[in-house]
Amino acid sequence: FVIWAMYSWMHIISTGVTSIIARRMGEGNLPDAQYVANQSLTLAIYLSLAVALIMLPTAPGIFAIMNTSGKVSQEGIPYLQIFAAGAISVFLFAAVDAIFRGSGNTKIPMWLIIFALSLNALLDPIFIFGLAGIPKLSVAGAALSTVLSRCIAAAIGLWILYRQGWFVPKLSALWTIDRPLALRIIEIGFPQAFSG
To answer: In a 10 Å sphere around its CB, with 0-12 CB exposed, 13-18 middle and 19+ buried, how is residue 155 labelled?
Structure first.
């Protein structure tokens, strides 16, 4: 349920950003569309940090509330904490996906998700069962493979966006958030997140 909720909140970015960028592109306003793209990455970072800060310390309490067995908690808590720590990969991937789709490019997101899922499938048995000299991580290994595959796919997407002029890799810009725009993205994306 907690992972499902996190993916639902991810829809705030994907829905809101896709909508606004598509509108700016329809108006022929490429500079504004690029500005929204950069701001979506900033919002993704802040939202993922919020998720990590909330979920990392509360993971044991969440399983206590669900009254799970000792074995389930023992396996589930590290899984949830790894997923929370790597939330930035999920949110950045959602932002990258939204930028491409908003600009009218649906092929690159398709190939990125195919790559991420394929890499995830490859890494799962390695981390879960401890193959190729990697320690056996059991269920936690599934979380790690998901986070790593999304992280690599997001990095590839960011590199493509940079090459196409959508992404300006300035740390100062990444940490500066346009609050009215962020609120507009949340306003548009929240209904989808709530219904998701």
So the answer is: middle
